[in-house]
Amino acid sequence: MKKKVLLSALALTFGLALTACGNSGSDKAADTGSKNETAAAKSSGDVFTIGATGPLTGSAASYGNSVKNGATIAIDEINAAGGVKVGDKTYQLALNFQDDEAKEDKAVNAYNKLMDSKINVYMGAVTSGSSLALTDLTAKDNILQITPSGSAKDITKNPNAFRLCFTDPLQGKMIADFVLDQGYESVAVLYNNSDEYSTGVYEAFKDELNAKGQSALIVNEQSFTNDDVDFTTQLTQIKASGAKLIFVPAYYEAAAHIVQQAKQQGIDSAFVGSDGWDGIIAQLTDESQAEGAVFLSPFLASDPSAAKFTDAYKKAYNATPDQFAADGYDTVYVIKADMEKAGSIESDDLIKAMTEIQVDGITGKVSFNADGEPNKEPKFVTITNGEYQLFDNN
Amino acid sequence: MKVNKKTIINIVIMLLAYALVFVLINSGVLSRQYKSLIVPICVNIMLAVSLNLVTGFLGELSLGHAGFMSIGAYSSALLSIALSNTFPPVLAFFTALICGGISAAFFGFLIGVPVLRLRGDYLAIVTLAFGEIIKSIINYLKITGGSKGLSKIPLYSDYKNFTVVFVIMVITIVLISNLIDSRDGRAIKSIRDNDIAAESIGINISRYKVMAFVIAAGFAGIAGALYAHNVGIIKPGIFDYNKSIEILVFVVLGGMGNIPGSIISAIILTLLPEFLRGADNLRMLLYAIVLIVMMIFNNSKFKSGLSLNRTFRKLGREE
C-alpha cells in the first residue's frame, strides 16, 4: 500500500515536471516561430496571422485538409499580390492550422495552442461539434471567429462569430422549396440518424414541408447509421412506397452506395441531395448511375468563375477542389475584405466591420448579417454525362 | 492505515504535487494549451486506474469502459443543466457528480450480474457490445440531443476549478489502491490468479467480480462527469469503442495491475499528441510509433535491468 501511494505521488510529480518541461519546450518552439515571423515582417511589412483548427487526421481528415489547402492558396495569392493594405500599413498573411481530429476536447487544446502563439483572427472550426465547443471561448477572448464550414445553428450565437456556409436548417428549407418548385408528387427520405448534419437537414426539410402544408408529400422515411454500406432493406421499402423522388441528406460515401444499390434494384426515382454529395462522381464505379441526380452545393469546380482557383488547386495538390477547399479559400478573402474595411487589425474593429462587407467569392456573392449568418444564393448542381453541371431550372 | 513516516511522506508529496500545479497555473508559466490539458490528464488517470481494477486486478478484459464514462457524462450533464438555474454551482456540481457516478455504477451492476458469468474473450465481446448499445441508445433519445450532442453544459470542472478535479482524482486513486490492499482486494486478486482455488477456500466469486466491476464503472462515471463539465459539449460519438481501447492502452502500457504505471502512462499518453503538434501531418503517425517503442521498452531487458538497480529497488521496497 505504502509503496503504491508513494509511487503514485512520484508519478504525479513526474507528470507535472513533464508538463512544465513541455511548456518550456513549446515556448521555445513558439519563440523560433515568432522569430521567423519577425524576420519575414522585417523584409516585407507586418504579419497578420490567421489561426485555424480542423481535422487533419482521423475519419474527417479530408475536410480539414481541404480547408487548409484552399486557405493556403488564397493566402499565397494575396501575399504574391503584395499583401493586405490596412490604413497605411501592409500586412502579409500567415496561416497557423492546428489539428483537432474533429473531436471537441482536442479542439479546445488546439485553439488554446493557437492563442498561445498569438493569432489575429480565428478561422474555424471546420466541423460543427468542434466549433460549438469553442464558440464561448472565442467570445471570451473577443476574437473574430469565422467558421468556413461549421453548420450547426448555435455556432454563431455570439456577436463575434460568423459563418460562411449554409446552416443545416437553411439547407433543408431550400431543398424542400426546390422539391415543391419542381412539383414532385411523393418523396422518400433516407437519412443518417447518427449524424447531426444529416438529421439537421432532414428535420428542417420536414418542417418546411409541414409549414407549407405539404407534409403528405413524404411517403416513406428510412434511416441508416455511420459507416453503413448496405442499404438494400431501406431501398426495398422505398421502392414499395412508389416514391417519385428520393431525398438523401448525407455525405458522398453513403450517397454513392445508395445510388448504386438503387439502380441495382431497378429503382428509377429521381435523387436529390444536400451539399455533402459533392465528390460523389469519384466514388461511383459507373458514372451513369447518378445521372440526373440534383444536389445543393455552394461551389462548382467546373464553374467558369472558379476556374482560376480550380487550376491553382489542381497544380498545387493534384486534386479537384471540393466545397470545403472553396470555403477555406473564400473565408481568407472575407478576412482580407474585413481587414480593409475595418482599417485596423483590432478585434473589435474587425468584428464590427464584418456586417459591412460584401465579397464576390467562388461560393457566390456573400454578405453577413448581425446574427453572423451569410446571405448568399444556393446553387443546385446536377450530374449530366458524368459531370457536375449547374442545374438549369427550365 | 497506520499513520507512520511513509504515510506522512505520501501526503507531503501529494500536497507538493498540488502546490506545483497550482503555482504553475497561477504564475502564468503554463501556456493555455497545457492549462487546458490538466483536467483531461486527471480524467484519464481516473479512467485508467478504474479500468485497471477490472482488467489488471480482477483479470477480466473489459472493452466497454467508455460506455460507463458516457453514462456518467450524460446523466451528470443533464442534471447540472436542469439544476444550474436553481442551485448554487457548488451544490449543483456535486449532485451531478454523485448522480453520474451512481448511475454508471447502477448500469455496471445491471450489466455485471448476467455478464460476469462469462469469462475471458466472451466477457470482452459482451462489454464491447454494451458500449455500442449505450452509444446507440443515447443517439436515439431526444433528451440527450441525439447525434447533435448535448451542449451548454456549465463548465464546473475546467482548469480554474482544478483543485476540485485534483482532489477527486486523489480520492479515486487512494480508494482503489486501498481496496486492492484490503481483504476484498486480495479476494479479487485471488480470482484473477486461480478462480477454482479461490472458490475452494470459500470466496464468493460472483460477488467479488460484480463488486470490482461496479466500483470501476462508478469511477468511470465520475470521470465522465468531470469530462463533460470540462469540455461543455458531449456527443455519443466521443464514447465509442476507440475511447475504450484508448483507456485500455493506458492500462496495458502502464502494466496490468500496476496503479502507478496506469497513472504515468495516462499522463504521458495524454500529453504526447500535444507535444507532437509541431510535427504537423506526421503527428498521429509519430504517436503510433512512440506507442510501439514504449510497449517494446516495457517488455525489454533494459527495463527489468533498471528495476533491479539498487536505487530503484530501494524506492519501491515494501517496508
Automatic annotation (TrEMBL), chain B:
Keyword Endoplasmic reticulum appears in the UniProt entry: no
Signal peptide as annotated in the record: none
Localization terms from the record: Cell membrane
Gene3D superfamilies named among the record's database cross-references: ABC transporter involved in vitamin B12 uptake, BtuC (1.10.3470.10)
Pfam families hit by this protein: BPD_transp_2
Membrane topology: Multi-pass membrane protein
Keyword annotations of the record: Cell membrane, Membrane, Transmembrane, Transmembrane helix
Protein name: Branched-chain amino acid ABC transporter, permease protein
Organism annotation: Lachnoanaerobaculum saburreum DSM 3986
